[in-house]
Every structure is written in C-alpha cells, then in structure tokens.
What we know:
- The protein has 10 helices and 10 strands.
- The protein is an alpha/beta fold.
- The protein has a single domain (2-274), classed as 3-Layer(aba) Sandwich (Rossmann fold).
- It has a 6-stranded mixed beta sheet, sandwiched between helices. The protein has a 4-stranded antiparallel beta sheet with strand order 2-1-4-5, covered by helices on one side.
- Strand 1 and strand 2 (35-45) form a beta hairpin.
- The protein is globular, with a radius of gyration of 19 Å.
- Bound molecules: adenosine-5'-triphosphate and magnesium ion.
- Adenosine-5'-triphosphate is lined by residues 32, 35, 37, 55, 57-63, 104.
Amino acid sequence: MKAFRGEPSIFASARPEDRRAELEVKKLTLKFGGITALNQIDLLVRTGELVAVIGPNGAGKTSLLNCITGYYKPQEGQIFFNGNEITNHHTHHLTKLGIGRTYQNIELFPGMTVLSNMLLARHAHCKYNIGKASLFLRSVRDEEVRHRQILEELIDFLEMQSIRKQLVGSLPYGMRKRVELGRALALEPKLLILDEPFAGMTLEEKEDMVRFLVELNESWNQTMVLVEHDMSVVMSISKRVAVLDFGVKLAEGTPEFVQNHPQVIKAYLGDTSEID
Length: 276
Ligand SMILES: Nc1ncnc2c1ncn2[C@@H]1O[C@H](COP(=O)(O)OP(=O)(O)OP(=O)(O)O)[C@@H](O)[C@H]1O
Ligand SMILES: [Mg+2]
C-alpha cells in the first residue's frame, strides 16, 4: 500500500502514531451454564504489540475475543481500551472506537464482490446520514472519494487487484481469509483482533499472510491480538504469547518462554522440537 511507503497517500493521514491502542483485560470470567469458558483472565496489550493467544480447542480463545469485541457478556471482570472501560459495550460502538476483527468462521457476504464487502465495512466510518446523502453534499462526495481511495490502497497492499471484482463465494478459502483481513483493515482499526487467520491456508498463502501482518505491525505499528494454532507462525511473529487451557491462563511470556514451559508443553504443545 502506498500509504505504507509514505506520501502522497490518503491512508497516510492515519499515521502510525495515530494508531495508539492499549487493551487491558482484568480478571475476566465468562460462564455458559456449568462451563467456565474464561476464569479470571488478565491480559495487557500495549500499543504496537503483537500478542498471541494460544491453547487447545475449547480453551476459551474465541470467547476471550468475543468478550473484547462485545459479542459475549462476561459475568465478572473488566475490559479497558485506551484507559476507558468498555466491558459489555455494544459491538457497533467498539468498532467505532477502533477495535476491528476477523472471525474464526469467515463472516463475509459470499454473494458480493471483494470490493463491495470492504465498502460495507467502511460504513462504520460514514459521517453522513441518509438525509445529507440524498442532498449529495460536497462533504458526502469527498467522504465517498476517501472511502474508495482507502479501499484501493488496501487492495493494493493485500495484492488483491486481480480479485477485486470477484464474488467472495467464488474464491479459494485462503483468499477469503485475506479478504477478511482487508475488511477488518478497511475500518482503520487501532486494535486488530485476528481469530485463526491462517487456518485452512496453503503454505504459500500463509507466507503472504505473515508478510502482511509483519508489515502492518512493524511499519504501521498496528496493535494486534492473534489467536492461532499454527505454532511456527505464532512463534515467529509474536512478541508475547499467552496460553489458555480450560479457561485459565497457564503461562505468558516470550515465544521462547512459553515453548519451554513444562505446563504448556504438557497441555498443548507436546514436543516442540519440530517448531522452527
Ligand atoms: N455460545 C456458546 N454457548 C455455549 N458454550 C460456548 C459458547 N461459546 C463457547 N462455548 C464454550 O466455551 C468453551 C471455550 O470455547 P471457545 O470457542 O472460546 O474455545 P477456543 O479456544 O476458541 O477453541 P478452538 O481452538 O476450537 O477455536 C468451550 O467449552 C465451548 O464449548
Ligand atoms: Mg476459537
């Protein structure tokens, strides 16, 4: 994306330093009947960090993301975003605050094109209402132009030029995952939350996705929470890793620390000698 390489660019108006985002989860507990999906979970993600959350199936990873993004209502605990409490805030409000996400099960409109899916996401940024739009005010027109420019830059960045007009439902699974990332980025999120973005991808698709995420994080200071089962990816791109098991945080630290943590090895990683 041009914006990542400097001026002139419409996207450059959102400078890396404008993307400050700090997330603090405190003693979060979430129960479904007799199941404790999250048990007193703490997590701190600082501006510009890429923090991974890993753990076995059913450990509570998606539940944690769903609490942060307002889909699930925790029974106990608090969530803060840039110092303001956001516990149980509405999803729509959290999107406006700058929390963007992708979903474990892709949530795109398969009958719409790549561009239309991304344009829909931009609606969260619309400052105009229907009344103003119907008058076709200059401000509305300018905003529409900006939406389009940002999307085109994102499409360039994610190397999706050749598929921009294709229906999402006709794309290979790995490519749909990339469109999902594009849709989340179209909101210009301060905090980007990714739920298994590498699942079902070919090796080549994974390499591309790694490249995009690393560039976002390192050049763009994009704060990210990454849930992922592919340990070679997690260990190579995360600065910090939190490990959940049965809703409890087993360990947290550098990739090296968690890879050598006896409880983590027992509960999830097994023999890590093959992770490179
Ligand atoms: N909406 C729900 N209703 C009832 N139980 C739920 C719901 N969502 C999650 N759970 C339960 O909460 C626990 C944690 O599930 P969660 O989906 O958060 O796990 P996960 O770590 O994301 O697993 P995976 O790696 O398989 O995606 C599981 O026991 C799950 O069955
Ligand atoms: Mg999950």
